[in-house]
Write a structure and sequence with these properties.
10 helices; globular; 349 residues
Length: 349
């Protein structure tokens, strides 16, 4: 099977996201990258915890939940067919709900994997192999679909211009890099560091820097300065969910950057595929994480014990701050995003 991760940065190679092998799932721990440490999961429940703990994030869980389903099939392989099928159904639900904001997207993968595994069992085939194969096929579809998105985004970036990113857009980062290199386009990249886990500093900047782009990291409170002084031409982010009315949810902090972009007259382009089952911004669930992740980082306490914190993982950006939603079918004004569904929707999860 041809793989679609060719010429991608280290972080986007399939095996470096999450991978099933011999009764274990290895997941690159993005919380401490560029240190290259893999977390080994010996049960699908450990994969759920790894996703919940943000060992992998952005689109990484799309791979991890599929490989987690293969691990679930391995865990139950010596039981009867009915017990195996029931176990796969439970694993599909648990893995899908590892994080609430994206449960709908994870579920498209896990429930499909469960059906593939059950069909393999009924036909006397190995459900583990079948689930791994369908997960790789899903990866190929996603990378191929997002390459179309990356091509559209690359077209929007001025040659020798400067873009600003927020958090880690995962596949879109790799595909826009690949599109730019293939077309001979070059640009500077400013990466907002993205607190509290610094995904922009550790992940996004690593991908662009590794592939030869002029890359600069800024702290989250340097956005206005950089827009005013550094010649930012375009702000772009992926989205963890995109409602049909044009509201999007992305890593906390995206909303305030979008406000600043509007103030400075800088276009903001969101990349991704709209969610068919989320009609409005009211359908977006914001995950509230443990505030301790704000109060400390990598074991170092940032505050005295008397200080509290909050940690909403995402915020919702309204459509009036978004210049366009870049999809595999073109660029949509957010107010007419519902038209995306007027024609057949490609499946890429």
């Amino acid at each position: 099977m041809e793989r679609m991760d060719k010429n991608m940065p280290f972080l986007l190679k399939y095996e470096n996201v999450a991978w099933y092998d011999k009764g274990k799932v290895r997941i690159l721990d993005r919380r401490i990258f560029p240190e290259r440490h893999f977390v080994e999961c010996e049960s699908y429940q450990e994969v759920v915890k790894a996703i919940s703990d943000m060992v992998t994030q952005s689109a990484g869980p799309y791979t991890a939940v599929g490989m987690g389903m293969a691990l679930a099939a391995y865990q139950i392989k010596d039981k009867g067919i009915k017990e195996q099928c029931d176990f796969l159904d439970k694993a599909a639900y648990d893995l899908a709900h590892a994080r609430p904001t994206t449960a709908n997207r994870y579920g498209k993968i896990t429930y499909h994997c469960a059906e593939v595994g059950k069909a393999a069992l009924e036909n006397g085939k190995d459900p583990i192999e079948a689930i791994v194969d369908t997960t790789i096929e899903s990866l190929n579809r996603r990378y191929s679909t997002m390459q179309i998105v990356g091509n559209y985004l690359s077209d929007l970036i001025p040659n020798n211009g400067t873009i600003l990113t927020q958090c880690f857009g995962e596949t879109i980062i790799g595909t826009v890099i690949r599109a730019a290199i293939e077309s001979g386009k070059n640009f500077r990249v400013f990466c907002a560091e993205t607190r509290p886990y610094l995904q922009g500093a550790r992940l996004t900047s690593s991908c662009f820097g590794e592939m030869g782009f002029d890359t600069t990291v800024i702290t989250d409170n340097m956005i206005a300065y950089s827009m005013e002084k550094e010649g930012i031409d375009l702000f772009t982010s992926a989205a963890d969910t995109i409602a049909r009315d044009g509201h999007i949810a992305n890593k906390i902090g995206t909303f305030q950057i979008a406000i600043l972009a509007k103030y400075f007259g800088i276009p903001y382009y969101v990349t991704g595929i709209p969610d068919e089952d989320k009609m409005t911004g009211d359908d977006i669930v914001i995950e509230m994480r443990n505030p301790s992740q704000v109060l400390s980082y990598r074991g170092i306490q940032n505050t005295i014990p008397e200080v509290k914190a909050i940690y909403p993982s995402f915020d919702v950006v309204p459509p009036h701050l978004i210049s366009g939603v870049v999809t595999d079918k073109g660029v949509y004004v957010p107010y007419i995003l519902d038209k995306y569904f007027d024609s057949d929707v490609k499946k890429f999860y």
